[in-house]
Amino acid sequence: QVHLQESGPGLVKPSETLSLTCTVSSGSIHHYYWSWIRQPPGKGLEWIGYIFYSGVTNYNTSLKSRVTISVDTSKNQFSLKLSSVTAADTAIYYCARASGSNWYSSFDYWGQGTLVAVSS
Amino acid sequence: QSALTQPASVSGSPGQSITISCTGTSSDLGSHNLVSWYQQYPGKVPKLIIFEDIERPSGVSNRFSGSRSGNTASLTISGLQSEDEAQYYCCSYERITTYWVFGGGTKLTV
Question: What confidence tier does B2 reach under pLDDT thresholds 50, 70, 90?
Answer without folding.
Answer: low
